[in-house]
Design brief:
This protein has 289 residues and is α/β, with parallel strands linked by helices. The protein is built from 13 helices and 9 strands.
Length: 289
């Protein structure tokens, strides 16, 4: 069992840290809102710390799951940042979905300070975090990954190193690119079925077992047909991720015409007041136009 720290107890981080505690690891948590840390400790045991630096002090593994590039820099750098408390030979595992640029910057800083940095964004949403069934995409030094993988296993269904620093984030971008086009296609298909007077549920019951089947179809068609989007991965978060994808594409020359188009469709959903709706809410945009 390992001495660990977990920074960021949001929708994903809270249950992920809980799985570490349930697996028997010693967990110290930090969250910007102290009440959330106190609630986590009451539920799972362990301890909380008043700053990221104090949470990281003495930990063999420091895990982090916050919002974006700026949030990650805020909790890692500076006098009370986690990097000032992380010890030599520790492994810092970042589960935040951020740019490959900030990942490489922080990895280099970590190397200079004598500890390892693994970028490890996740896929599987809130349900995956709660059920300990996330897909974890990792980049970084092989030795550091080999040390961290057995600990990550507490909340992972699949975990793999894809390459050096930044490879995990680049793989998460591929994940989001694929989801964007898929959800738009599913939205159009269900919308078409409704307009054609078909029973949408009966249609999905048939086509989900064929080539059109997907996780999104199996897990979201019911709520899409019911016009219920108070669940899942928020549009605001998806737009943040798609912005990262599109920025990276400018650098590497990738052509992402559908991704850019769906990003604008999500902007339409935001303008409808749907920033916190699930990403499957693309179908509502079709019913309003």
């Amino acid at each position: 069992m390992a001495k660990t720290a977990f920074i960021g107890l949001g929708v994903m981080g809270y249950p992920m840290a809980g799985h570490l505690a349930a697996a028997g690891h010693d967990v110290v948590v930090y969250n910007r809102t102290e009440a959330k840390s106190a609630d986590w400790v009451r539920t799972h045991g362990g301890a909380s710390a008043p700053t990221p630096a104090k949470a990281a002090a003495g930990a063999e593994f420091v895990f982090c799951c916050v919002g974006n590039d700026d949030d990650l820099r805020a909790v890692t750098l500076g006098e009370s940042g986690a990097f000032s408390g992380t010890g030599r030979d520790a492994v810092f595992v970042d589960h935040t979905t951020v740019s490959a640029k900030v990942t490489r910057e922080l990895s280099e800083i970590a190397r200079e300070k004598g500890f390892a940095f693994v970028d490890a964004p996740v896929s599987g949403g809130e349900a995956g975090a709660q059920n300990g069934a996330l897909s974890v995409m990792c980049g970084g030094d092989q030795t550091a990954y080999d040390r961290a993988e057995p600990i990550i296993d507490a909340y992972a269904k699949a975990c793999r190193r894809l390459g050096d620093s930044g490879a995990g984030q680049l793989t998460k971008m591929v994940n989001q690119i694929c989801i964007a086009g898929l959800v738009q296609g599913l939205s159009e298909g269900l919308h078409f079925a409704q307009q054609a007077g078909l029973d949408g549920r009966a249609v999905v019951d048939v086509i989900a077992h064929g080539a059109a089947g997907s996780w999104q179809m199996s897990n979201r068609f019911d709520t899409m047909l019911d016009d219920n989007f108070d669940l899942g991965f928020a549009v605001d978060w998806m737009r943040k991720d798609m912005g990262i994808c599109l920025d990276e594409a400018k650098s590497n020359g990738a052509k992402l015409p559908v991704t850019a188009l769906v990003d604008q469709f999500y902007a339409d959903v935001q303008s409808m007041g749907g920033g916190r709706w699930d990403t499957s809410s693309l179908i509502r945009r079709l019913s309003r136009t």
